[in-house]
Hints:
The chain is mainly α. Helix content is about 65%, strand content about 0%.
Amino acid sequence: MANNGPNWDGLLKWSLSHSEGASSSRRLSEEDRQWFMEAMQGHTIDSISRMKMISQIMKTPEQVLEAQGVTSDDLEGMLDELQEHVESIDLANDLNSIGGLVPLLSYLKNSNAIIRAKAADVLTTVVQNNPRSQQLVMEANGFEPLLTNFTSDPDIRVRTKALGAISSLIRHNQPGITAFRLANGYAGLRDALVSGTVRFQRKALNLIHYLLQESNSDCKIVRDLGFPRIMIHLASNQDFEVREFALRGLLELAREESERNLDRADVNLRQLLEERTRRIIVMSEEDLCAAREERELVDSLWTVCYDEPSHLREKGLVYLPCDDELAPDVVRDRFEPPLRAWAARRHDQTSESSVPLLLGPAP
Length: 363
């Protein structure tokens, strides 16, 4: 942070003098100055006003921000606040109408990797389960910089955040899925799987599973790019989520029999399932309960591939008494913005509530 903080007053003068249609001799009124200062210092609870001010800052060139004492920490904090506002679907959709979407997309090309990553994180929240904002981002050519960051940014955190944004952007969005295929997005997913970075691998596997469920024809693409071999390797990963996501992908490939996308005679596949079975059999009761999904996936994959009951089923380890308790929705909790998820759950529980939400109606 700068010693005396950002010079918001100077920044306002620059913004006004360079705004579209503004005269170079335009004078800054005391009312304008006070409104801007209060907005940027947090003295207002008007979310739209705050979003407008943040949008104005994002339109300002990096060198001007630096000259006015605005640091990368300031910008990251500003994006954090913007992300809180756009947890509301209504405010997320308002971002474009107030002129904030295009500047946010431009931050995907910021010289600072932290800002590039945070911009993608905010976009993830904007488009999450939000068809209108998905359409607006596609129309604003937001897919292209996200794909570039996902496939070629030198910073792994930027690549991971960009993949998260792409995943949210193209879900239940056929034009987005089509654009992903045409841009050879699957090659980027393959690179993510072999990256050795757990968070990157999780996001890639989760998106692969979704895409395979959406279109059986994608199984052939995945097979031809060598994904089965990689997923067999990842299915024995130390991270349980990577293991489960990899097993899900393998099961989707095995179920699509028309193209034989998964070689069931592959000795590595059989060795994997035998090894996972042995490890599950010797688990403690607590670990067995925690491994519910892995137990079911290993059993299903064995049955589909070899047309016989698995050893887990023979030993009665596929379904256990502890499975009667509802398992947490790990995927939703990981990928859905927390405030939006909370609002949705609250709406389900109190559909006739008379108390309005402060951040707008639940989605």
